[in-house]
């Protein structure tokens, strides 16, 4: 379990130009609109930075990633994956991104500077076909559920998210 002194990063990734692919970014935006967190928590819009996220990942003890996840479920299905569940290479497509995030995590581990824990909170996308800024109804309807999952993950790490008035 984490403590309040752990450095925690909540990282939303994805491309907002590709409909549901941008759900991770939209969730962290909504989380920041609704909640405040202690200074030990950094909430980051990682967009499509991929390997550019290595410095952010290296400086954290606990990483919570929010992203669209290609699983076996129906569109709108929520997923929770831990570090051990993530693919070990670029060859396995987990995220709708080009898996640069998985590579960044693996490179951090190889260098000995990876986070102690990684959790991916994801949702099965319905449409990631270029181009469109709007998420599909099924995925947009689950954004608040994903926000609450972030709150729950932080709570498990001993971090309280304070609801804004």
What does this entry look like structurally?
With 165 residues, this protein is α/β, with parallel strands linked by helices. It has a single domain, classed as Rossmann fold, CATH 3.40.50.1450. The protein has helices at 23-34, 54-58, 100-111, 137-140, 143-156; strands spanning 8-13, 35-36, 41-47, 62-68, 78-82, 117-123, 162-163. The strands form two sheets. Strands 3-1-4-6-5 form a five-stranded mixed β-sheet, with helices on one face. A two-stranded antiparallel sheet has the order 2-7. Helix 1 (23-34) crosses helix 5.
Specify the number of helices: 5
The 3D shape can be described as globular
Give the fraction of residues assigned to helices.
25-40%
Instruction: Give the rounded overall mean pLDDT.
Output: 85
Total count of domains: 1
CATH architecture: 3-Layer(aba) Sandwich
Listing every helix as H and every strand as E from the N terminus to the C terminus, the arrangement reads EHEEHEEHEHHE
How many E strands?
7
Main sheet: which strands, in order across? 3-1-4-6-5
What is Rg?
15 Å
Separation, N- and C-terminal Cα atoms: 29 Å
| Low-confidence sequence ranges | 89-98
Question: Could you provide a short overview of the structure?
Answer:
By secondary structure, the protein is α/β, with parallel strands linked by helices. It has helices at residues 23-34, 54-58, 100-111, 137-140, 143-156, and strands spanning 8-13, 35-36, 41-47, 62-68, 78-82, 117-123, 162-163. α1 (23-34) crosses α5 (143-156).
């Amino acid at each position: 379990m984490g403590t309040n002194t752990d450095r925690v990063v909540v990282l939303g990734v994805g491309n907002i130009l590709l409909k549901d692919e941008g759900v991770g970014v939209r969730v962290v935006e909504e989380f920041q609109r609704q909640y405040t967190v202690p200074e030990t928590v950094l909430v980051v819009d990682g967009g499509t930075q991929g390997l550019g996220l290595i410095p952010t990942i290296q400086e954290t003890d606990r990483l919570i990633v929010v992203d669209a996840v290609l699983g076996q479920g129906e569109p709108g299905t929520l997923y929770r994956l831990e570090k051990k569940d993530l693919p070990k290479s670029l060859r396995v497509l987990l995220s709708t991104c080009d898996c640069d995030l998985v590579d960044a995590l693996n490179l951090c581990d190889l260098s000995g500077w990876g986070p102690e824990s990684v959790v991916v909170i994801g949702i099965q996308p319905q449409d990631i076909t270029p181009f469109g800024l709007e998420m599909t109804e099924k995925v947009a309807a689950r954004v608040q559920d994903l926000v609450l999952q972030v709150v729950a993950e932080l709570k498990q790490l001993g971090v309280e998210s304070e609801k804004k008035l």
